[in-house]
C-alpha cells in the first residue's frame, strides 16, 4: 500500500500531481454508481442536492455510506473490480516517473474501491497501486450493522478535504486533475488545473482558468509541452 509521506520544505519536489479517482481515473463514475446501486432511494434524493451544493459533500456522502448495511461491503468491492481505467494513465505515470514528479490520488470515495481498481496489473508487471506516491480516501468500518465512515482529513464541506492533503505535499507547482464537484476546492487552490465534465462548469462559475482534457494522453502531451519550455 502506498505510504503517506509528509514532505518538508527541504526535500519538496519541484512539482506534484494530485488526481481525483472516481470518474477521473475511472472511465465512469464508479463511486456514484455504487451509491446508486446500494443506496438507490437516498441517492436519488441527495445527489442532486450535492451537485447543486445545497448540502455539503461531507453531509451527503456520510449519510449515503452509513445507510448501507455492512453485509453489502464485499458486494461493493465486487462491483468495483471490472471498472475500467481511463486511457493514457500508464503513459502519464511513465512521463511523471521520468520527470521525478509524484502522482497522488485524492479521492472523496471509498479506499477499498480505489485500491481494488488500482490493483489491476500494468504492462510493466506492477500494479497501478504500486505506482502511486500516496492514496487518500474515505475509510470504512464494516464491523457494525451499517457502514461507518472514518477520514483523517475530514473538514469543512468534505469528508476528504483535498486542500488539506495538498498542504501535506508542498511543491513549487501543484497540478490538479478532476471532473466534478468533489474536486472544486482542490482545483481552486491549484495553480494548474486539468478539468473535465461537471468540474468545468463549476470553474467557469468561479472564473478559474483550467485546461480541458478527455483522457490522460491529453494531460501527458500538455505537460510535456509546458515543461519542455520551462
From TrEMBL:
Pfam families tied to this protein: HAD
InterPro entries given in the database record: HAD-like_SerB, HAD-like_sf, HAD_sf
Source organism of this protein record: Symplocastrum torsivum CPER-KK1
Organism ancestry: Bacteria, Bacillati, Cyanobacteriota, Cyanophyceae, Oscillatoriophycideae
Designated name of the protein: HAD-IB family phosphatase
Molecular-function GO terms, alphabetical: L-phosphoserine phosphatase activity; magnesium ion binding
Protein family according to the UniProt entry: Belongs to the HAD-like hydrolase superfamily. SerB family.
Any Gene Ontology CC annotation: cytoplasm
Domain of life: Bacteria
UniProt-listed GO biological process terms: L-serine biosynthetic process
NCBIfam families, A to Z: HAD-SF-IB
Amino acid at each position: 500500500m502506498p505510504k503517506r509521506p509528509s514532505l518538508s520544505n527541504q526535500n519538496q519536489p519541484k512539482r506534484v500531481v494530485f488526481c481525483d479517482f472516481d470518474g477521473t481515473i475511472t472511465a465512469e463514475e464508479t463511486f456514484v454508481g455504487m451509491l446508486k446501486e446500494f443506496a438507490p432511494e437516498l441517492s436519488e434524493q441527495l445527489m442532486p442536492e450535492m451537485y447543486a451544493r445545497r448540502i455539503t459533500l461531507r453531509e451527503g456522502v456520510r449519510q449515503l455510506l452509513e445507510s448501507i448495511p455492512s453485509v453489502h461491503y464485499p458486494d461493493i468491492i465486487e462491483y468495483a473490480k471490472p471498472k475500467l481505467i481511463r486511457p493514457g494513465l500508464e503513459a502519464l505515470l511513465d512521463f511523471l516517473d521520468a520527470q521525478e514528479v509524484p502522482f497522488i490520488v485524492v479521492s472523496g470515495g471509498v479506499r477499498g474501491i480505489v485500491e481494488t481498481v488500482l490493483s489491476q496489473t500494468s504492462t510493466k508487471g506492477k500494479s497501478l497501486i504500486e505506482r502511486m506516491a500516496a492514496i487518500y480516501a474515505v475509510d470504512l468500518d464494516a464491523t457494525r450493522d451499517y457502514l461507518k465512515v472514518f477520514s483523517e482529513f475530514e473538514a469543512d464541506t468534505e469528508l476528504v478535504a483535498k486542500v488539506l492533503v495538498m498542504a501535506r505535499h508542498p511543491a513549487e507547482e501543484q497540478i490538479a486533475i478532476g471532473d466534478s464537484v468533489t474536486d472544486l476546492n482542490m482545483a481552486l487552490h491549484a495553480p494548474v488545473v486539468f478539468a473535465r465534465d461537471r468540474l468545468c462548469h463549476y470553474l467557469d462559475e468561479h472564473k478559474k482558468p483550467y485546461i480541458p482534457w478527455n483522457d490522460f494522453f491529453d494531460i501527458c502531451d500538455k505537460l510535456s509541452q509546458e515543461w519542455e519550455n520551462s
